[in-house]
Amino acid sequence: MLITFLMTFALESAFGQPAQISLVGAENLEPDFAAEVDIVFVYETNVLNQLPFEQFDWISSREREIIRFGTRIDVISLQVVAGTKLENIPLPARVDKAVAVLVFASHADPVAESIDITRESKLILQVENWGIEVRPI
Question: What does each C-alpha distance from 56 to 46, 59, 82, 129 come to in angstroms?
Answer without folding.
Answer: 22, 5, 23, 14
